[in-house]
Amino acid sequence: xxxxxxxxxxxxxxxxxxxxxxxxxxxxxxxxxxxxxxxxxxxxxxxxxxxxxxxxxxxxxxxxxxxxxxxxxxxxxxxxxxxxxxxxxxxxxxxxxxxxxxxxxxxxxxxxxxxxxxxxxxxxxxxxxxxxxxxxxxxxxxxxxxxxxxxxxxxxxxxxxxxxxxxxxxxxxxxxxxxxxxxxxxxxxxxxxxxxxxxxxxxxxxxxxxxxxxxxxxxxxxxxxxxxxxxxxxxxxxxxxxxxxxxxxxxxxxxxxxxxxxxxxxxxxxxxxxxxxxxxxxxxxxxxxxxxxxxxxxxxxxxxxxxxxxxxxxxxxxxxxxxxxxxxxxxxxxxxxxxxxxxxxxxxxxxxxxxxxxxxxxxxxxxxxxxxxxxxxxxxxxxxxxxxxxxxxxxxxxxxxxxxxxxxxxxx
Length: 412
Ligand code: NIG
Ligand code: FE
Known about the structure:
By secondary structure, this protein is an alpha/beta fold. The chain has helices at about 90-95, 100-105, 110-120, 120-140, 155-170, 195-210, 230-240, 255-265, 275-285, 295-300, 305-310, 335-345, 350-355, 355-360, 390-395; strands spanning about 1-10, 30-40, 45-50, 60-65, 70, 75, 140-145, 175-180, 215-220, 245-250, 270, 290, 320, 380-385, 400-405, 410. The model has no long low-confidence stretch (mean pLDDT about 95).
């Protein structure tokens, strides 16, 4: 099965020599080819270049991309797509003046979602989640990470992870699963956080490794949730079960979670709305990817991750949605890229690098997706006719995608 895309106005994020991620000043470089072709063979990028050297071969499908651009599809390295119901009520509470913290203290927040999820069957949870997954695929997401963390019991956490496994089996986009049992202390362990951590370590983690239900381990390292000490405990235990750390840190307070992540070779540290100078220094020259979640900042009206300061200090940065019912009920990577440009002062080049190759790295998929490179999956965005790729974030809230391809096949 061969598809040839011809007359592409600009082929974006072309990496002939593969890179794992880009950082610092290199994030401003977004290699492209104007007036290009792209050949896809059996779902994989087989060849590309300037139209001057377009091969004259028999193919099954020809797509004339005159006036349009092609980018690798978005890589969303941080989501909580598997959840039950929604928290629209809390949305209105916040409009009426309550803070995220006040809502959580009244039994809302994560515990509210956990209660709903515990009462929802695995089949129903799958049905609700697949609708969200299909929606973000149509919005251009071509690789995604999904966390547990709204179960908070052995059965409910395993239920969530089995739903993620079923999504992996039934959809062609790469999906990575993260165990986030340490998302909040459940009500029945209110005065026994240590007991809950032991449940995660002694009962749930062994089951996860036995059933191979997750690749990563996560924890909400935050004042009022889990301490740095708890974080180290969970990361160490996770690693003993073959789970690589990817953690929630510095969302509301900076308490040393970044350093704990780096110490335990976290693949990524995510949120980072509150960054001290020492947190930036701790990330320099490491293999840990900082991940910003601008739609969360937008929705909660909290500070944006200081992207400018971080990139100017030589760090890489990835962008993800954080799609979840409480802090970010949106999985639109186009909006994330636009918000990063508008609110975080990232250039379109930086934002596109952050949402493609760096996002791929943040979920261990940099060899499969995230750039136009021979051998990678043909997960592609074909834009409407636009003048420059910068028009995508510029025209925020509008849809500049004409078609989305996964493994070279158009989805609708
Ligand atoms: O990434 N911060 C922790 N977890 C989620 C939100 C959880 C919720 O409110 O349901 C986040 O923002
Ligand atoms: Fe999150």
